[in-house]
Design brief:
Distance between the termini: 13 Å
Shape: elongated
Oligomer: single chain
Number of strands: 0
Largest sheet: none
Structural class: mainly alpha
Order of helices and strands: HHHHHHHHH
Helix content: 55-70%
Radius of gyration: 18 Å
Strand content: under 5%
Number of helices: 9
Length: 194
């Protein structure tokens, strides 16, 4: 089960991912002209990377394993999306347009790394682990589900709102961190015989 450090890294990763979404929404197409680096996509990349320790330590139950695999797959798709966006960022406009058309026309790249991979798979991967905390934090799990629904059914700025709600939900799920000032709740799997 993820430990306190994993949970803090996970929350930090979600915050960074949300900040990357804020940058993309504020800058829009101007995000392609950021200098000296593509700050928005580096923020997304770092945020997604911080989710890995949490995903790797999910319980080795059937559900925990499925949730971990889907979350890791979503992280891989986000990393791939960022790699493609870094290439677009580094090209001049003429080459950028040609490459864009070539990638959009290739479903094995565009569909996987730009559409459903970082969208549906990553979003599902973010939500599934919250179900492991259902017994201990129904409100937290409910907030994660609400945040995911906001992201799925909204666009652009709704992602920022959705990630904010997801972060609040996981914060409640992880109240065993003692950050809320109350009694620590038991983490799923704690206190049970092995």
């Amino acid at each position: 089960m993820p430990n306190r450090t994993d949970q803090i890294l996970f929350l930090s990763g979600l915050v960074l991912f949300m900040l990357g979404q804020v940058q993309l929404n504020l800058l829009g197409p101007a995000s392609q002209s950021q200098a000296p680096i593509d700050w928005a996509h580096w923020t997304l990349l770092l945020g997604a990377s911080l989710l890995i320790p949490f995903a790797a330590r999910l319980p080795r139950t059937l559900f925990g394993s499925i949730a971990g695999i889907i979350l890791i797959a979503g992280i891989v798709f986000v990393i791939g999306m960022n790699a493609i966006d870094f290439v677009f960022w580094g090209l001049d406009d003429d080459m950028d347009g040609q490459l864009y058309r070539a990638i959009v026309d290739e479903p094995a790249i565009w569909g996987v790394f730009m559409r459903w991979g970082p969208g549906e798979i990553f979003t599902t991967g973010i939500g599934l682990p919250s179900l492991l905390y259902w017994r201990h934090s129904r409100l937290g799990t409910g907030l994660v589900a609400l945040g995911l629904a906001i992201m799925i059914f909204g666009t652009q700025w709704y992602n920022v709102i959705g990630y904010s709600v997801v972060i609040a939900g996981y914060f409640l799920n992880f109240d065993r961190l003692g950050l809320l000032g109350g009694a620590r709740s038991q983490s799923p799997g704690e206190g049970t015989a092995s």
